[in-house]
């Protein structure tokens, strides 16, 4: 570092994380040590949890050494000319890297390993999250030295804000010509939440020091035996006999895969993935299943932990349930159920709202709890219900389609098997998913693997199914029939 | 108010010998007091909100000095306030966000500039341009030129910014012309220090009142025939006086260079950036000593032709570094030189021909312009270093983009956790599923975040409080009704008149949705006329409750002006809001329909709640905390709940189930238990994953016993 050029720090943070406080601390730090310093920011509306940056310049010579000369400090960071890049969130670190601020020659990078997901990532119907591993790789590959640790967890552990934690990391990086004590003095002088801030500072100081130059190695968990897990799931869902049905179906998948991949070149991926989604599908979420899950002791304990209830605190759990007629009819024998459903469809065609019972059910209250257990106890009757029959029919259809595809091409069979991933959600969402799958099985059973994959991804692209229909037409298949939705709108008479 | 300035308020009292440390905009505030300002007004808006906020909080200091502080209802009323300086020897300052605020103030500004001022009038504008800006990208410079106002663009170093405020008043008085002090976003938020001087209590003030009003003087009216003379005065007397003052007091700074054959003219506000750009070429040191002479225009309008000529004398070429379009300064310089030297000037003038026309002038942008300039007029200067640096930047970006393979998801601002406006848009999304899509006229304010995902609502934004007016031409042409969304901030800023009054007067068939959160939240939760009283807040037994219903000013105003269809709905009641919206869109009532979404700004509520709860816990009192959650094993990973909310604390986590590949929804720390998750689960029949957890700390003996009993019984029948 040139002794006559300012030390430059760029801080990437989310609005409301205390980046402003951090910048203020750094300026105070330099000022107390008698060095010229300047910080700028562009909060604006970004202070509402948007991505923003704070920029600090500190001149390495003290006022005394400068003898009256005042350096001209820049208000904005310069690409490639940042000495220390600090990020409270991994994606924001990489955003700064992509903007060109971080250089492999000059910039040390302190970043949190944790992700605050963006709305875009969260909205996806499937998994829209940006690949963490890749973010970390890019971070490691594009700076002079990397120190990555979980700033968010450290802050929560110390019961303080990310700002104090980041200050500790900055101190540990020793990019600034100041002693640790000087940093801590600034926190003390700030006067608010000092103890917690110092705790966070100390934790971060050691974690950052440890992390310097040693990017966290991505762990590779061993692939568990999905067939066994699936079997257990299905038995727990219904009974041993149902488990046997699961095993039989898996065997059919195995036979199919053997047929198109005798040497097992693909390591049994078709069976593994097929078994995965088959189990999730066979253990479909109906009222009985949900009631069972919601009334378990493990669940009560989990809620207690998630809610951060301390020993001695009382916990009340109110479940927001709204079983619709469709869900309830699903438990009834097809004959009766279908009758009810036709009535319901007629009602809705007349523009009436779907029949559903909004419940705020106290799962920890006696009435609520026993209500749930009562529903869960209906399990043996499930086999008689309409939903059960419908699911089995579609599962068989899917399985058969996979089998026939396996006769010609392993890849096609796999892509079709993976389409079972579309089956998710409750009520209308679940209905939409089933229709999408049915449509693929109907029209793309003989299509090329990439076509099937494209359609599957498209089905998970947007709720309205715009991308899905586009993919279908591209594949030469008909778009889905437009479902009749009664739209009540008021036409204004033209003058 | 969002920020507390207790520390800064103390600094405003500092006197000679003390050093001020802090934000640029607060240094400006201190400088106003050092200049003997008598009255201050303005309208909040980034990046200048803090000027007014700190003055409002510094009531005592202002009272001691006799300074009057007015939180104006909009920029027009702030600009009109400067009328006090037309007749009276009063120094006045107003502030707002530009260019938008200046647009709103334009009428009053013209009528102020024409008669001119006796007391110094300073308009501090935050030039919201470039990175971090939230408004249309235009220059305030044009207003200064068209109304012959002075435009100060200080070199962004606190001592110089302070000097420009002090000199600005003197300059304004020397030429009877109001002055605009323009500060870019980063200059407003720059943290630095300067040596204070004592505050000056104005000769005429709230403490030293004038006995009589000024005598009638038609010449001081912006009214014909006076206006014709006033226009002549501008260029015959005022601007010449301004130019004399600028030169005599060396307001513009000339930094000598080591060579004199080429020079640089730069807006004061860009000086630091220019110096940093020169450093990339090795043409300047850390202290700004440069190879070429630099003329820094702390006053960018009017220019002083003679000063320009002298600077250019003997130079082969000059580069004008001027941000934004069009290139007013460059044109003025070219004209000045041509007139003065009858066109014989040997100096080539460059600017926007070598520098980019639009957008912020970053170090990189200026360096690229310098590169072209030097290649043409200083070929003997080595530019290799800068070229390598620029090339490396480009290569780095390209390289990283390819490593990432996919573009990074953007992270725009969004509604805060527990914001009362989010549920309204959830309801609007659901309502449109039943009544079909509607035209949505959006507005300025937090609710504009609904234009981002997951909502993507809003066809147009025509300005602050303009939404209802902006659909006046749409509704008559559309079979379905149009919706105008407006905040209470926009309503009082001008929505009441431009929108409501006009719609009523024309019997428009319109739907107006007013977000009544009680503050101008987007600008930092400043109070407005419909903000709940401090007494209400102090008196509320449960500090968690929304209190905006305690102030009925908006409702009474609407009733008074003649709104016949008015519904008030608590904003968190998604189903009720959905039904009300559907009714408004489909009712036979053909007039203006107004829905008030009532829910206090969550930021303000939390400012009350946090200390209150902490106090109760400290005292060992019973406290009930509400938090929502998701059962991961019930969630199927479809995320429709998120597409209906977008709350920062409703996010995703790995399912923890080896079978489930898709992440499941989860509620993280920070949930304030606003209730939207539960409301949406019911209103949209989402899924049974959501639960509401109530954590009772320091419970009573009775409930503890009851709870133990209950858990005992349940334990007997519970599955592990």
TrEMBL record, chain A:
Domain DUF6537 as annotated: residue spans: 225-442
InterPro entries reported for this sequence: DUF6537, IorB_Oxidoreductase, Pyrv/ketoisovalerate_OxRed_cat, Pyrv_flavodox_OxRed_cen
Domain of life: Bacteria
Keywords annotated in UniProt: Oxidoreductase, Pyruvate
Pfam families registered for this protein in UniProt: DUF6537 (PF20169), POR (PF01558)
GO MF entry, a single one: oxidoreductase activity, acting on the aldehyde or oxo group of donors
Bilayer-spanning residue ranges: none
Residue span, Pyruvate/ketoisovalerate oxidoreductase catalytic domain: 15-205
Name the UniProt record assigns to this protein: Indolepyruvate ferredoxin oxidoreductase beta subunit
Organism (species): Sulfurisoma sediminicola
UniProtKB/TrEMBL annotation, chain B:
Keyword flag Metal-binding: yes
Domain Thiamine pyrophosphate enzyme TPP-binding, residue spans: 443-588
BP term (GO), one: small molecule metabolic process
Alphabetical keyword list: Metal-binding, Oxidoreductase, Pyruvate
SUPFAM superfamilies: 4Fe-4S ferredoxins, Thiamin diphosphate-binding fold (THDP-binding)
Pfam families from the UniProt entry: TPP_enzyme_C
Domain of life the protein comes from: Bacteria
GO molecular function term, any single one: thiamine pyrophosphate binding
CDD domains with a match to the protein in the record: TPP_PYR_PFOR_IOR-alpha_like
Record Gene3D superfamilies: 3.40.50.970
Signal peptide location: none
Name by which UniProt lists this protein: Indolepyruvate ferredoxin oxidoreductase alpha subunit
Species assigned in the record: Sulfurisoma sediminicola
């Amino acid at each position: 570092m040139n002794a006559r050029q300012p030390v430059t720090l760029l801080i990437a943070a989310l609005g409301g994380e205390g980046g402003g406080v951090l910048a203020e601390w750094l300026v105070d730090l330099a000022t107390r040590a008698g060095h010229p310093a300047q910080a700028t920011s562009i909060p604006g509306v970004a202070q509402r949890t948007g991505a923003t940056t704070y920029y600090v310049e500190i001149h390495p010579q003290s006022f005394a050494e400068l003898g009256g000369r005042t350096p001209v400090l820049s208000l904005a960071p310069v690409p490639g000319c940042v000495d220390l890049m600090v990020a409270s969130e991994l994606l924001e670190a990489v955003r700064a890297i992509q903007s060109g601020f971080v250089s492999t020659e000059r910039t040390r990078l302190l970043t949190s390993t944790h992700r605050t997901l963006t709305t875009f990532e969260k909205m996806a119907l499937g998994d829209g999250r940006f690949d963490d591993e890749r973010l970390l790789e890019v971070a490691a590959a594009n700076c002079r030295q990397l120190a990555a640790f979980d700033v968010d967890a450290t802050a929560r552990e110390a019961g303080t804000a990310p700002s104090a934690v980041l200050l500790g990391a900055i101190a540990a990086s020793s990019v600034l010509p100041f002693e640790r004590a000087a940093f801590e003095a600034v926190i003390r002088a700030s006067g608010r939440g000092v103890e917690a801030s110092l705790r966070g500072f100390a934790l971060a100081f050691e974690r950052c020091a440890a992390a310097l130059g040693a990017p966290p190695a991505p762990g590779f968990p061993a692939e568990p035996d999905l067939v066994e897990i699936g079997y257990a799931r299905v038995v727990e869902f219904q009974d041993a006999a149902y488990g046997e049905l699961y095993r039989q179906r898996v065997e059919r998948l195995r036979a199919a895969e053997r047929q198109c991949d005798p040497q097992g070149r693909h390591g049994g991926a078709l069976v593994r993935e097929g078994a995965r989604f088959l189990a999730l599908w066979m253990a479909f979420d109906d009222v009985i299943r949900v009631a069972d899950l919601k009334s378990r002791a493990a669940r009560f304990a989990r809620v207690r932990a998630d809610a951060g209830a301390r020993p001695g605190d009382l916990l009340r759990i109110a479940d927001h349930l709204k079983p619709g007629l469709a869900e309830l009819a699903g438990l009834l024998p097809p004959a009766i159920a279908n009758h009810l459903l036709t009535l319901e469809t007629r009602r809705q065609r007349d523009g009436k709202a779907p029949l559903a019972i909004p419940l705020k059910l106290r799962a920890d209250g006696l009435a609520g709890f026993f209500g749930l257990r009562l529903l869960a106890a209906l399990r043996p009757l499930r086999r008689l219900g309409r939903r059960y029959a419908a699911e089995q029919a579609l599962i068989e259809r899917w399985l058969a389609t996979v089998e026939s595809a396996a006769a010609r091409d392993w890849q096609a069979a796999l892509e079709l098997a993976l389409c079972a991933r579309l089956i998710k959600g409750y009520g209308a969402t679940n209905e939409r998913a089933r229709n999408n799958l049915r449509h693929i099985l109907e029209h793309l059973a003989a299509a090329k693997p990439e076509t099937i994959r494209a359609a599957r991804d498209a089905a998970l692209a947007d709720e309205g199914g715009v991308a899905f229909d586009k993919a279908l037409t591209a594949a030469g298949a008909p778009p889905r029939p437009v479902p009749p939705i009664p739209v009540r709108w008021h036409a204004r008479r033209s003058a | 108010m969002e920020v507390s300035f207790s520390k800064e308020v103390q600094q405003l009292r500092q006197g000679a010998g003390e050093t001020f440390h802090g934000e640029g905009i607060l240094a400006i505030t201190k400088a106003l007091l050092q200049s003997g300002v008598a009255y201050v007004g303005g309208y909040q808006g980034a990046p200048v909100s803090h000027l007014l906020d700190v003055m409002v909080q510094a009531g005592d200091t202002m009272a001691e000095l006799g300074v009057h502080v007015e939180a104006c209802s909009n920029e027009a009323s702030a600009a009109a306030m400067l009328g006090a300086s037309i007749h009276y020897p009063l120094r006045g300052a107003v502030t707002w966000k530009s260019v938008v605020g200046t647009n709103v103030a334009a009428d009053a500004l013209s009528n102020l500039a024409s008669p001119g001022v006796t007391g110094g009038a300073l308009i501090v504008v935050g030039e919201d341009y470039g990175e971090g800006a939230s408004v249309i990208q235009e220059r305030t410079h044009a207003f200064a030129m068209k109304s012959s106002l002075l435009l100060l663009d200080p070199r962004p170093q606190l001592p110089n910014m302070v000097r420009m405020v002090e000199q600005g008043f003197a300059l304004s008085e020397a030429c009877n012309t109001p002055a605009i002090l323009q500060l870019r976003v980063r200059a407003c938020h720059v943290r630095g220090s300067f040596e204070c001087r004592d505050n000056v209590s104005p000769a005429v003030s709230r403490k030293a009142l004038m006995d009589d009003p000024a005598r009638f003087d038609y010449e001081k009216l912006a009214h014909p025939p006076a206006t014709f003379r006033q226009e002549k005065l501008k260029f015959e007397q005022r601007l010449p006086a301004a130019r004399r003052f600028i030169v005599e007091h060396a307001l513009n700074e000339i930094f000598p260079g080591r060579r004199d054959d080429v020079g640089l003219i730069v807006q004061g506000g860009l000086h630091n950036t220019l110096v940093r750009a020169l450093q990339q070429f090795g043409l300047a040191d850390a202290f700004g000593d440069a190879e070429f002479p630099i003329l820094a225009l702390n006053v960018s309008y009017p220019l002083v032709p003679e000063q320009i000529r002298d600077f250019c004398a003997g130079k082969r070429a000059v580069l004008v570094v001027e941000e934004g379009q069009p290139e007013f300064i460059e044109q003025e310089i070219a004209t000045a030189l041509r007139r003065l030297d009858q066109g014989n000037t040997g100096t080539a003038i460059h600017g926007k021909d070598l520098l980019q026309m639009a957008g912020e002038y970053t170090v990189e942008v200026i360096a690229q312009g310098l590169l072209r300039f030097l290649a043409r007029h200083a070929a003997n200067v080595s530019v290799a270093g800068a070229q390598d640096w620029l090339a490396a930047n480009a290569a780095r970006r390209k390289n990283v983009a390819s490593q990432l393979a996919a573009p990074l998801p953007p992270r725009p601002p969004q509604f805060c956790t527990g914001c009362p406006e989010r549920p309204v848009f959830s309801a609007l999304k659901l309502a449109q599923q039943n009544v079909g899509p509607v035209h949505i006229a959006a507005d300025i304010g937090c609710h504009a975040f609904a234009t981002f995902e997951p909502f993507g609502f809003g066809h147009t934004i025509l300005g602050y409080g303009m939404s209802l007016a902006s659909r006046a031409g749409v509704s008559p042409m559309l079979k379905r009704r149009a919706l105008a969304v407006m905040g209470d901030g926009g309503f009082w800023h001008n929505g009441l008149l431009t929108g409501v009054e006009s719609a009523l007067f024309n019997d428009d068939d319109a739907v107006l949705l007013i977000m009544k959160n009680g503050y101008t939240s987007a600008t930092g939760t400043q109070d407005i006329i419909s903000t709940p009283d401090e007494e209400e807040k102090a008196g509320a037994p449960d500090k968690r409750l929304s209190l905006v219903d305690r102030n009925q000013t908006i409702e009474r105003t609407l009733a008074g002006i003649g709104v016949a269809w008015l519904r008030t709905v608590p904003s968190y009641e998604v189903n009720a809001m959905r039904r009300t919206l559907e009714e408004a869109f489909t009712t036979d009532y053909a007039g203006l329909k107004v829905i008030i979404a009532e829910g206090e700004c969550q930021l303000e509520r939390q400012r009350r709640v946090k200390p209150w709860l902490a106090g109760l816990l400290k005292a060992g009192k019973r406290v009930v905390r509400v938090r929502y959650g998701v059962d991961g094993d019930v969630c199927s990973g479809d995320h429709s709940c998120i597409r209906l909310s977008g709350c920062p604390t409703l996010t995703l986590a790995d399912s923890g189930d080896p079978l489930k590949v898709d992440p499941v929804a989860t509620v993280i720390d920070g949930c304030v238990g606003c209730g939207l998750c539960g409301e949406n689960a019911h209103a949209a029949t989402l899924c049974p994953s959501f639960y509401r957890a109530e954590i009772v700390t320091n419970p009573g003996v009775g409930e503890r016993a009851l709870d133990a009993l209950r858990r005992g019984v349940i334990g007997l029948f519970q599955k592990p």
